[in-house]
Amino acid sequence: MAARAGGRDLAYVYGGNVYGQQPVMLSKLGYYWHKLVNYFYPSGQPPVFGVVSSSDCDSQSVGIGLIAQLLQ
């Protein structure tokens, strides 16, 4: 994602939280946790979203925290 962002602002959203770097270990732990839980109760694993924006974009006025809440 960082290569595709091309110098623009990049943030990751996972489980309703915003991270400056990709939450690799956290998402791996979440994957294994959901795999275990699915044996007893079916549930979906939250995806990891990469949000790319620039200062010229109107998405800056929305705020990454609001985007994280909407993607949860």
Task: Please give a structural write-up.
The chain has 3 helices and 3 strands; from the N terminus they run αββαβα. It has 72 residues and is α+β, with helices and mostly antiparallel strands. It has one domain. The chain has a 3-stranded antiparallel beta sheet, covered by helices on one side. The protein is elongated. This is ROK family protein.
Q: Outline the low-pLDDT stretches.
A: none
Q: Globular, elongated, flat, extended or rod-shaped: what is the shape?
A: elongated
Count of discrete alpha- or pi-helical segments spanning 4 or more residues = 3
Number of strands: 3
Protein name: ROK family protein
Organism: Devosia rhodophyticola
Structure, briefly:
It comes from Devosia rhodophyticola. Helix content is 36%, strand content 21%.
Write a concise keyword list for the protein shown above.
alpha+beta, 3 helices, 3 strands, ROK family protein
What topology emerges from the helices and strands here?
Blueprint: H1 2-5, E1 9-14, E2 17-19, H2 24-37, E3 48-53, H3 64-71
Antiparallel strand pairs: 1-2, 1-3
